[in-house]
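User: Sequence in, structure out. Go.
Assistant: Echoing your sequence, followed by the structure tokens.
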Amino acid sequence: MTVFFASDHAGFALKEVLKAHVASLGHDVVDVGAITYEEGDDYPSFIHTAAEHVATTDDTRGIILGGSGQGEAMVANRHSGIRAAVYMGDHSDVLDPVALAREHNDANVLSIGARFVNEEEAKAAVERFLNTPFSTDERHVRRLTQF
């Protein structure tokens, strides 16, 4: 699988860590920006590029990062075929938001709030995101066709 990465300054350092981690898991990694740290850069162009690649290329996923991950997910979700889910850390022992986003909604982009997670939490979330299959239950498939 090819995994496209994008972030602004707020997620840049964590993006670099996660790129190496995803590559170590055997996936192809493509970084569409920011390529260098630049304080005050704007995320929409980077996120747009990643979302376009995921929406138009088979066997891909996207991992996008920002301060909260919220704005990044909003930009990504404007693209047809993108289903971006936000992750800001585990806050429940009962539900796994990353696994549920994959299983129930076939999320193909994970938006990480870099200011809310540490490296280990982010690595674990990325592994769940990449390893959790979409449920083919009829109700989940049916719902995807409605948006």
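User: And one key feature?
Assistant: The longest strand covers residues 60-66.
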